[in-house]
Amino acid sequence: MSVTNTEADSAADIIALNAARELGEALEAIGIALPSLRAEANVNGVGFVNLGGCAADEAYTLAHWIHDHA
Length: 70
Fold this sequence. Notes:
By secondary structure, the chain is α+β, with helices and mostly antiparallel strands. It has two helices and two strands.
């Protein structure tokens, strides 16, 4: 079975949407909200998630959480 570019693009878009949703939910679980988090158009069949901008306090909170749990 071959996969067309349209099918690959669609799969990449779905992966990006799911990844953005899961990341948003995981961040919410630790009290962090990235308001600009969203799936982006895929590039060469690879889905991308745009983390967007956030307030500096959210960035510090995320950085400290990562350092504490790394």
